[in-house]
Amino acid sequence: MKLLLKIVLALTVVSVISNVIPSPFASWAQDVAYENCTDLRLDWPSGVARNEKAAQKISVAGTAAPRVHAGTYALNTRLDADDNGVGCENKKTGAQLLGEAIRESTRS
Q1: Which of 45, 58, 61, 70 is surrounded by the most beta carbons within 10 Å?
Q2: Residue 45: CB partners within 8 Å, gap ≥ 6?
Q3: Which carries the bigger pLDDT value, residue 31 or residue 94?
Q4: DSSP run (H or E) holding 82
């Protein structure tokens, strides 16, 4: 009985904390329609993919891998200009993106 009470109490605490502290990935958990690719890339820097197969095709091509989120992709299909299953994909490679991030962080 004491164990059950401890479990219920722990779950209650976790539930309260998760509702109070916002997740840094909250926008990824929701389906969001974006105005344009610039706005979408603020949350999805490498674009958003319809499914894992589409994301892998882009990754194989040497570009930064997009994240898979079918709901967000469905709301933004008009931003998939080449109809390859990835909206607003970044054509730059991971190494190029890393180099830009390093250069940006050293500017002051």
Answers
A1: 58
A2: 64, 90, 97
A3: 31
A4: none
Tell me the C-alpha distance between 15 and 33, whole Å.
28
Mean per-residue pLDDT, 13-38? 63
Residue that the structure tokens 């690719």 belong to: 37
More confident residue, 102 or 27: 102
Extract the tokens encoding 95: 């190494």
pLDDT for position 99: 79
Nearest-Å Rg of the Cα atoms of the chain is 19
Read off the pLDDT band of 4 (50, 70, 90): low
What's the length of the chain?
108
Please report, in angstroms and rounded to a whole number, the separation of the first and last CA atoms in the chain: 60
**Cα torsion 16, 17, 21, 22: sign:** negative
